[in-house]
Amino acid sequence: MTRTVERIVKLLKIGLIGALALAIVRRFRGGGRAEVTGSARWHPLGEPTPPPARSGPVRFTEATSTSDDEPTDPATKTATAARTWVEPVDGICPASHPIKGNADSGIFHIPGGTSYERTTPERCYGSAADAEADGFRQAKR
Predict the structure, then answer these.
(1) In this structure, are residues 102 and 108 in contact, taking their beta carbons and an 8 Å threshold?
(2) Residue boundaries of the structural domains of the chain
(3) Which string of DSSP letters, residue by residue, matches the chain?
(4) Which of 16, 28, 81, 91 has the most CB atoms around its CB within 10 Å?
(5) Using one digit for the tens of pLDDT, what is the confidence trace for 14-31?
């Protein structure tokens, strides 16, 4: 039993020496506890919490008010957006709207492009700007 006690005492000595060495290293390196720079505040239940301050590459913006000429009714907005494109007739875009748009991929093709002839359009646009305004991107040539 004395041998077991001797082992426990040795382990306690090793642990004590290690703890002292760690405390000395932390003291000279300035480590340890972080400095308190502010205080946290918990909002009571029922009060709305303010949005957190954002810092970094992503910044959220508040919703802007609409102008007087912009429709606020979702059905009217859809009808206004639909005026920039027309449906193809038998898979062919009319001459007034030659830009072919593919709604599944979100890509539009301009006349003379590599894939223009073999593309079956789902929407036809009058200009590339109309297609881009509708969220499409131009096909790589």
Answers:
(1) yes
(2) 81-138
(3) -HHHHHHHHHHHHHHHHHHHHHHHHHHHHT-SSPPP-----PPPTTSPPPPPP--SS----PPPPPPTTS--SHHHHHHHHHTTEE--BTTB--TT--EEEETTTTEEE-TTSTTTTT---SEEESSHHHHHHTT-EEPP-
(4) 81
(5) 999 999 998 888 887 765
